[in-house]
Amino acid sequence: MKKTIALVTGGFTGESVISLKSAEVIERNIDSEKFEVYKIIITPESWYYIDRNAIKHTIDKNDFSLNIQDKVIRFDGVFIGLHGSPGEDGKLQGYFDMVGLPYTSCDALTSAITMNKGYTKAIVEGIKDLHTARSIQLFANTPSAAEEVLAGLNLPLFVKPNNGGSSIGMSKVKTAEELPLALEKAFKEDDQVLVEEYIAGREFTIGVYKGKEGIKVLPSTEIVSSKEFFDYEAKYTAGITDEITPGRMTGEEQARVERVVTEAFRRLNCRGVVRIDYILEEETGKFFFIEVNTVPGQTEASLIPQQVRETGRTITDFYTELLETALGK
User: Fold this and answer.
1) For an engineered disulfide with 42, which of 10, 128, 168, 219 has Cβ 3.0 to 4.6 Å away?
2) Residues annotated as binding site for Mg(2+)?
């Protein structure tokens, strides 16, 4: 008997555009013989499903159900395809825990923590062979903020909204004069900003997931961008970035990376599939942790689908494993 699945998408931030594109890919690739899928769009104004006749049906938030032509649709589980808030910061996960619905992503606590880049770095600190860039976390754009940063860190710097995604509001700062504008840009996206020293090296991203056989690591992807860094345009515009899967690493580097990201996944108590970004430092080859994305993109241009295909599996088979693991099958 088919399981009834809610595919949630949309969101409250600028990443909602990417969420909708991810949902299109997910919806096309979920096994229709095993799952009946309803795409639920979540916006600040409404949670709803649009049927084939373009009629909008509002979700009953009391139990996350639908009423279509006097038939109540209740879900067996949720595939979370919503980037940013409320799908990636723990809010939806907490709600689904309260109404008793299983879902494909990390739980509420892990989602909330990993959305905060500074807090995540503090938790993974101490994992063998994992390094983090020196950083300062700012909680307000005070007149002395730039001065505080320059006194504590060495240029060049990366300035990031602490709770953001898709590199929105992020800047690379090479001179002291560029810093105030970069801080202003980041604080427009978030009320916390993380400033990190730049690490010169090769940039990679790698998928890690928990399936029927425990924690598994996907092939890495090496990011070679023609831009200064892997920003929003580089991530979602064809031709700007070369994405090499599997990434070019020695056998020792690959084994070390797999061990480090598996331990980070375990320490952060992750579930479902996450994407961990890292740099192998130019001169030393050391692993520098950047961040973890608990609802990684699933668009045609996204990296997790590339990595899954590299293993010889179909994305349909992969989504089936994620759903069945979440449902406890």
Assistant:
1) 10
2) 277, 291, 293
